[in-house]
Amino acid sequence: MTFIRNIENFECAKCGFFVAGNGFTNHCPECLWSKHVDVEPGDRLATCQTLMEPIGIEIDGGETYILQKCIKCKHTRRNKVSKDDSYDRIISISKPAN
Asked: Which of 32, 47, 69, 92 is most solvent-facing, going by the fewest CB within 10 Å?
């Protein structure tokens, strides 16, 4: 897998927050939602183009990841947590459902 770096700013399609991209930004730091736009990271080849919901947190090798699931096709992926991500939102999705 070859990562393709795309520096893109975007308005979150879920909450409307303006996100200044850095080439590695792939989700909204406010609500943690993203869009299903890639087949491989950065390629923009996914045809789905639907919102991806943050559904949990995973820790692997000392790194923390946001687990996301496409609300249309159910594709899942994980994205590294960024220093700019909402800590409160990360905590809220890391709790088990009641």
From this structure: 47
